[in-house]
Design goal:
Helix content is 34%, strand content 28%. The protein contains eleven helices and eleven strands. Strands 1, 2, 3, 4, 5, 6 and 11 form a seven-stranded mixed beta sheet that branches. The protein has a four-stranded antiparallel beta sheet with strand order 8-9-7-10. The protein is globular. Bound molecules: cytidine-5'-monophosphate (C5P).
Length: 319
């Protein structure tokens, strides 16, 4: 009989999705990526990763969905290998079981959140004691949104999305209704390519101009109250190209805009998920319940969510 695992050999990492409260494309960089100015926010929609230390040096992944690969191209495996290489110990092994709740290809950074959870979880499970800042730095090698997902909360993100500036805010009480048409996904590279084709001629070209834009974003008040005031500065540039080519996004935005008490309606990331902000979770949940039939008729999955002040949360199996 296989002996039960000791408590310290099993860990659950909760990987939180994010929404973009703001996404501005500033220009194109020498490495071909876009230079961005964003504000990202973690929400309480999450995947769970159960991590079990193993002694046979393997990194394995099982998932509860066949919509994603559990091979070497999965960001979870990439993150685990990256961390193992970083500390130079190929003896480290783990079996990971992923319960996927964050919709895939939705603009909610589900894959990035899983990679972030893998790094934070394995840092603990393998007793590596790396600083969170080191994990953020390492993670940008495999994806632009992963550094944000490591620490999460509400942060300004520059560069490809990997340069983080934490906002000096101590509570996030807003609620939101998030919707997504389950029949579609949007490819992030396609959204950026399309944006470049349409708006590339307006791109800023040097870092001095980027910095002027960054200072504008830094100067905006990103507090809950200010967001509820539906500020005009808040925007998602990718919405300008994804909305016209994706009727499901237009439909989502229309439904959300008509909801009572909804403020600031926007697409998240490269879409197709969209959200409406509310004063708090209870209000969002009440409005969701009252309109559940409308979402169903429109073929939209819908969630009421709250904001989180961190990206990854670790717990023991039975707590
Ligand atoms: O880094 P990540 O894997 O999230 O990026 C996916 C794709 O999105 C990139 O390959 C690129 O085509 C596009 N992208 C971009 N500029 C960014 C982030 C992503 O052009 N800042």
């Amino acid at each position: 009989m296989v002996p039960p695992k000791a408590n310290e050999d099993v860990l659950i990492a909760e990987a939180h999705a994010k929404i973009n409260l703001h996404l501005e494309v500033l220009g194109i960089r020498d490495d071909g990526f876009h230079e961005l100015a964003m504000v990202m926010q973690s929400i309480n929609l999450s995947d769970q990763l159960r991590m079990i230390k193993n002694e046979d040096n393997n990194i394995t992944l099982k998932t509860n969905t066949n919509e994603i690969s559990n091979g070497e191209d999965n960001l979870i495996i990439k993150a685990a290998r990256l961390l193992r290489n970083k500390v130079g110990n190929t003896q480290l092994g783990v079996d990971i079981e992923l319960v996927k709740n964050i919709p895939i290809g939705a603009g909610l950074a589900g894959g990035s959140a899983d990679a972030a959870a893998t790094l934070v979880g394995l840092n603990k499970l393998w007793n590596l004691n790396l600083e969170i800042s080191e994990l953020e730095k390492l993670s940008k090698e495999i994806g632009s949104d992963i550094p944000f997902c490591v620490s999460g909360g509400r942060q300004i993100c520059f560069g490809r999305g990997e340069i983080l500036e934490r906002l000096n805010l101590d509570h996030f009480d807003l609620g939101l209704i998030l919707v997504k048409d389950p029949s579609i996904q949007v490819s992030t590279p396609v959204a950026y390519k399309k944006y470049k084709e349409e708006f590339g001629n307006r791109y800023l070209e040097n870092d001095r101009d980027f910095e002027i834009k960054r200072n504008i974003v830094r100067s905006i008040n990103w507090s809950d109250q200010s967001l509820l005031d539906n500020r005009k500065e808040v925007q998602n540039d990718l919405q300008k190209v994804v909305c016209p080519m994706t009727p499901e996004v237009e439909k989502s935005l229309n439904i959300l805009s008509r909801l009572p008490d909804s403020r600031l309606v926007s697409m998240s990331g490269s879409g197709p998920s969209c959200f409406a902000l509310f004063e708090n979770y209870n209000q969002a949940n009440k409005v969701l319940k009252e309109h559940v039939n409308e979402f169903e008729r429109a073929g939209l999955s819908a969630w009421a969510c709250s904001m989180k002040s961190n990206g990854v949360q670790l717990r023991n199996e039975f707590t």
